[in-house]
Design a protein that fits this description.
With 89 residues, the chain is α+β, with helices and mostly antiparallel strands. It contains 4 helices and 4 strands, in the order ββαβααβα. It has a single domain, classed as Rossmann fold, CATH 3.40.50. A two-stranded antiparallel ribbon has the order 1-2. The termini are far apart.
Length: 89
């Protein structure tokens, strides 16, 4: 299955090999990236390190926040948004 969802400054790409294109797609949006993940899975599966490596190879500055809990509440999402603004992401 392949699909693409576009929203201002958001580009969700779901396809085989999508992670390998992360750097090129992200570079179109700016010079820094805020990766927001849960506490374990992305790191445990190796996706976090892979994503960071692809992004940094393209010269992007990567910030990571890895403490997202299930069932986010609005105040937390607003806090994440502010975190991104503070890092100019």
């Amino acid at each position: 299955m392949t699909f693409r969802y576009l929203f201002p400054r958001t580009n969700l790409i779901f396809r085989e090999g999508g992670l390998e294109n992360l750097d090129k797609e992200t570079k179109k949006l700016g010079k820094s990236v805020l990766l927001v993940t849960g506490r374990k899975s992305m790191q445990k599966l190796g996706f976090l390190d892979k994503a960071k490596r692809y992004l940094e190879q393209e010269g992007l500055k990567v910030f990571h926040y890895g403490k997202v809990e299930p069932n986010l509440v609005l105040p937390f999402t607003i806090w994440i948004q502010r975190l991104g603004k503070n890092h100019r992401v």
